[in-house]
Design a protein that fits this description.
The complex is a heterodimer of chains A (114) and B (111).
Chain A (H helix, E strand, L loop, with lengths): L3 E4 L2 E4 L5 E7 L5 E7 L5 E9 L2 E4 L6 E3 L9 E3 L8 E8 L9 E2 L3 E5 L1
Parallel strand pairs in A: 2-11
Antiparallel strand pairs in A: 1-3, 3-8, 4-5, 4-9, 5-6, 7-8, 9-10, 9-11
Chain B lengths: L3 E2 L4 E5 L4 E7 L6 E7 L6 E7 L4 E4 L2 E6 L4 E6 L8 E8 L5 E3 L3 E6 L1
Parallel strand pairs in B: 2-11
Antiparallel strand pairs in B: 1-3, 3-8, 4-5, 4-9, 6-7, 7-8, 9-10, 9-11
Classes of the chains: A mainly beta (114), B mainly beta (111).
Chain lengths: 114, 111
């Protein structure tokens, strides 16, 4: 089955620790995205990537880093610089970053700070 | 400044009746609009979209209306079913393809 997988489903972070959220897609999509959702709020774009080895900052990139070494993988690292990391993180992909694109979302990872 | 707004955090309707979810935007350069549906602890799934050159798009029970002069779009679900109970996000995109999302409206359809 084609789709997007995110792991783990729940992730705990200690103070000062970096953690990495995994996102894999087998849809052969060029574009991938990371969003953050806080309770009662919409999705805010953290980073996006249009193609392998390229990525761009979104609206709230501070405290996060990404890599895109393979087309199917777009891991997100939440660094210790992110002071309020507790949130629901969603990864998405689309065929390309064009005007008429539909994004397909993964099931999400909930990050909690210990 | 929030560019996409869903002013109603929640909506409750009776099964079989019409559900109308509203969305307002401020950026007149948005040229594509999408609605997503999200169940708890899952990622959003695409529901329906509309290009700025159209004013209506219909897909089964779901219809999206776009009023460019008012910078307003709405999603109509008719008839509403209990399985439609979810959070609905409105999204708008520019030519770069990045979507800006509203905060969502929680729809509850009562049997």
């Amino acid at each position: 089955d084609g789709g997007i997988t995110q792991s783990p489903k729940y992730l705990f972070r200690k103070e000062g620790q970096n953690v990495t959220l995994s996102c894999e897609q087998n849809l052969n999509h060029d574009a991938m995205y990371w969003y953050r959702q806080d309770p009662g709020q919409g999705l805010r774009l953290i980073y996006y990537s249009q193609i392998v080895n390229d990525f761009q900052k979104g609206d709230i990139a501070e405290g996060y880093s990404v890599s895109r070494e393979k087309k199917e993988s777009f891991p997100l690292t939440v660094t210790s610089a992110q002071k309020n990391p507790t949130a629901f993180y969603l990864c998405a992909s689309s065929i390309a970053v064009t005007t008429q694109e539909t994004q397909y979302f993964g099931p999400g990872t909930r990050l909690l700070v210990l | 400044d929030q560019q996409v707004k869903q002013n109603s955090p929640s909506l409750s309707v009776q099964e079989g009746r019409i559900s109308i979810l509203n969305c307002d935007y401020t950026n007149s350069m948005f040229d594509y609009f999408l609605w997503y549906k999200k169940y708890p602890a899952e990622g959003p799934t695409f529901l329906i979209s509309i290009s700025s050159i159209k004013d209506k798009n219909e897909d089964g029970r779901f219809t999206v209306f776009l009023n460019k002069s008012a910078k307003h779009l709405s999603l109509h679900i008719v008839p509403s079913q209990p399985g439609d109970s979810a959070v609905y996000f409105c999204a708008a995109s520019l030519n770069a393809g990045k979507s800006t999302f509203g905060d969502g409206t929680t729809l509850t359809v009562k049997p």
